[in-house]
Specification:
The protein is of the alpha/beta class. It is about 45% helix and about 15% strand. Helix 12 links the parallel strand 8 and strand 9 (about 300-305). The structure holds fructose -6-phosphate.
């Protein structure tokens, strides 16, 4: 029998929702999302006091990526809210992206209501649901993205419109070049790491194999890669149906590192993946090296995944794409369908009844 990752028939039967195909299309979704944002009917705006992104799970991660991308490039703070309520400082000078793929996520709807009540300028990004309805009733600009995808597979549709809107408002330099480079890079990486590329030549499949039966521990070597580490963890949870954890340097050196004293027991439980970026400061690289020597002895394995590309968006999304593919391949190896998230559906159903 051919090995599952390299057998198109077995991959297809384990993945009837086509999650691998959707991951491979990240570049298309980013480009389309960007176009939707650039063309959206947005009010003219001067630079805000704050930029907020409201969104849960697969709809919130776009905000985390945006915050990392803009960290030292804008003069206003970027805050991601994954909750029902807003910080007390939100007011009429704030600009708010309310992101919910389904449009029916109660936390995001509540936070959107709070943003409206605070007088903030809102933009809704959704495929429909109550968020689309409320935005239309409220006269709030609405970026309507295509429906029918698992939210976490729609990352490009959720991040792209925010980047396109920021380009329209002219608050950030160089976004168009960044999106163009990221789109091209994601296409070539999808060809390099996609399902058709055999395990022998495919580092994403090789890493998935190393994670079978382990608890993945994903560390970002620096703040830039932090949302990519979170994305790895959440994709491993939702696609591969495994428990996973994540953290970021240097903070983890001040607490989590100590926990490794007994973390090697039971032996072979934890497998570490460190996400690296070419702009990681030398002190952080040194921290990764020393941490490996003094603390990670109990890990079954320690891997490093290096960002590809030149500009920041490409580098971040190259790490995301790598992890997304690893999570789908690990689902195949675990013989689970990557698409359904039955527990999330059940939670939402019970909360709604
Ligand atoms: C499902 C997924 C979830 C959802 C989250 C919020 O694929 O990734 O994390 O994104 O439950 O739902 P939406 O995105 O519809 O607001």
């Amino acid at each position: 029998m051919t090995y599952v990752l390299d057998d198109p028939g077995r991959r297809a039967s384990l993945d009837p929702g086509g999650m691998a195909e959707l991951v491979v299309r990240t570049a298309d979704f980013l480009r389309e999302g960007w176009e939707l944002g650039v063309r959206a009917a947005l009010p003219e705006g001067s630079s805000p006091s704050h930029l907020l992104v409201l969104g849960m799970g697969g709809s919130g991660i776009g905000g985390d990526l945006l915050r990392s991308l803009l960290y030292d490039r804008v003069r206003f703070p970027v805050t991601v809210v994954k909750d029902y309520t807003l910080p007390g400082w939100v007011g009429p000078e704030a600009v708010v992206f309310a992101c919910s793929y389904s449009g029916d996520t109660e936390e995001t709807l509540a936070a959107y209501g709070a943003a409206r009540a605070a007088g903030a300028a809102c933009v809704a990004v959704t495929s429909g649901g109550r968020l689309a309805q409320r935005a239309q009733e409220d006269g709030v600009p609405l970026v309507r993205i295509p429906s029918g995808l698992p939210p976490r597979a729609a990352l490009g549709y959720l991040l792209g419109p925010m980047l396109g809107a920021l380009q329209r408002w002219g608050w950030v330099e160089g976004l168009e070049e960044e999106v163009t480079e990221a789109e091209a890079l994601l296409r070539s990486l999808a060809a390099e790491w996609g399902p058709e590329v055999p395990t022998a030549h495919n580092p994403t499949k090789q890493l998935a194999r190393s994670l079978v039966g382990r608890v993945p521990v994903v560390y970002a070597a620096s703040r830039l890669s932090e949302p990519a580490a979170l994305r790895w963890k959440t994709q491993l949870n939702e696609n591969s149906k495994v428990y996973a954890t994540w953290n970021v340097f240097p903070e983890l050196n001040h607490n989590e590192t100590v926990g490794w004293a007994l973390a090697g027991q039971p032996e072979g439980l934890l497998e570490v993946v460190v996400l690296r970026d070419p702009e990681d400061a030398p002190r952080l690289v040194r921290r990764v090296e020393i941490t490996r020597e003094v603390a990670l002895g109990g890990a079954a394995g320690v891997h490093q995944v290096h960002a590809r590309g030149t500009r920041r968006l490409s580098r971040l999304l190259s790490l995301v794409l790598f992890g997304d593919l690893v999570s789908v391949y690990l689902a195949y190896l675990n013989e689970v369908d990557p698409t359904p998230v039955a527990v999330i559906d059940e939670l939402k159903r019970r909360l709604g009844s």
